[in-house]
Amino acid sequence: MARTITAGTRPRPLGRRTDAGANRWVVLVVLCVSLLLVALDATVLHVAVPSLTEDLRPSSTALLWIVDAYPLICAALLILFGTLGDRVGRRRVLLLGYVLFGVASAVAALATVPEVLIGARALLGVGGAMIMPATLSILRAVFPDRRERATAIGIWTAVAAVGAATGPVLGGFLVEHYWWGSVFLINIPLMALILPLGRWLLPESRGGGDGPWDVLGALMAAAGVLGAVLGVKRLGAGDPLLALPTAGPLLAGAALLVLFVRRQKRRAHPLIDMSLFARPAFTTSVGCIVLAMLALVGLQLIAVQYLQLVLGLTPLETGLRLLPLTFAAMAAGATGSYTLRRLGPRRMVGWGFVLTASAVLLLVLMGQHDRPLLLTVGFVLLGFGLQTTLFSAYESMLSEAPPESAGGAAAIGETSYQLGAGMGIAFLGSVMNAAYGPGVSGVPGVPDSAARAAANSLGEAYKVAEQLGGTAGAALRDTARHAFVNGLHVTLFVSAGLLLLGALMATRLPRVMDCPPVPREDLDDERSPRGERGGDGGPGVDGERGRDGDPRIAGAGAAGRELPAAGRGKDTARVPATRGPAERAASARGGH
């Protein structure tokens, strides 16, 4: 449905830089490098855990927090900083995130006690929460044309996949040749380079909210997400659902999130426009992101254990085996815009889910022995299918959100990603444990206490088998390997079922990719040099009025505005009705 917008609607000033249209592809490079650092840091530490444990000697609880502090804090603060960027400026929040990320990386690399490392990882999470939604909302701002934006989002999602997949490879290389702290030091020179580039090249943009920022609501959202993710992670670690450390955070987090939603519906100036969830395409896209990550992140962790513990590969060799997945994801991102225009969101997300499910079912053929060709084909299909799904879901979600709500929408998407990943680890980890545990019981010559310890994980079973030695130890080792592979097959079937459920969910997405034309005035504004007036006497960066007295905001196109310049007589342009509450309430009027 379209709405006629006339000169009576005045957009919000956007900031001092207005040449983002000419430099938008350079801006995309800066944003992608920012995202690459955050994605790398999410996985680069995994292969350094053994070396770190030997050096710092953390307790089991401290080690858990060293690994989890970063994703927990990052997930909890995404909504807070995403909506704050809409109010105070997305570029400002992003640059502050760069500084925090660099400082925290230095502290983490030089940590000598576990407590310092935990604090540094938490500070990294704060920086990551500033960076992640800001990159996506600025991308939404500098690419007002949906065709170009689809290409940009394809590149953006591919970079995220590259960062997550190459983290173990890079981490394995650094740990083998240097020490565990080097996995953090690689951030510092990159941040030293990207901070001045970002300050110079990135445009400033803000949302359309004129009211006060809801501090209490932001804190409620942060605490609610933190509780939910923490409870889910405890489930993934094997804690009982009804245990207080698991049920307490889950119930508290759910209650706070319900109160947050009710508060946003009542406020005149909400942090997040809850009417977004009334749009089927937006809600379905968010659901597809959650389901894709739920089905696959836990599976990825189990696959890494298979490569290392069953096939006996080193961490570096494991990372190299996963590279085909990375290259396939890059290819899907590079061709995503073209595919989306040809297929439309519904078929692209649906067939992406189907292709990923097919890859998962193909991997059921994995067994006790290494089959490199099978793994390569399976990982290629997996990477291409997953990237296709996530790309189209992110693109549909962001295109459904109005430009003034880009930060909030980006935060919702990233929070959905994190929640889906946490639930995937918990759910598929539980499926794996339920299928694996009974398989190691009743081994001849193995005491019941040893069998219970071996049922915790395959790695624990290997330790118990080594302690037992002799025939009983060898029998336990072989039985545990067979039980793990059988459990992996069950987990693959469950994951495939979730992915096919996602294909059914995708039927609620639009059939075609709607690409409304960007008004000529927006394109002219994008091409105007910084500080100059437009060709018809529009203002520079200070937002002054044009010669006929109407408000003119130069460079509005750089923030994704889809409104015509004022003062055009009775000319109007038809654009999608994706304005904020204040703009939707503005009455249309003619010229002078």
Automatic annotation (TrEMBL):
Domain Major facilitator superfamily (MFS) profile: 27-514
InterPro entries tied to this protein: MFS (IPR011701), MFS_dom (IPR020846), MFS_trans_sf (IPR036259)
Keywords noted in UniProt: Antibiotic resistance, Cell membrane, Membrane, Transmembrane, Transmembrane helix, Transport
UniProt xrefs under Pfam families: MFS_1
Record flagged with keyword ATP-binding: no
Gene3D superfamilies: MFS general substrate transporter like domains (1.20.1250.20), Multidrug resistance protein D (1.20.1720.10)
Topological category with respect to the lipid bilayer: Multi-pass membrane protein
Transmembrane domains' residue ranges: 25-49, 61-81, 93-112, 118-139, 151-173, 179-201, 213-230, 242-261, 281-302, 322-341, 348-367, 373-394, 483-506
Name by which UniProt lists this protein: MFS transporter
Signal sequence extent: none
Naturally occurring in which organism (per UniProt): Streptomyces roseoviridis
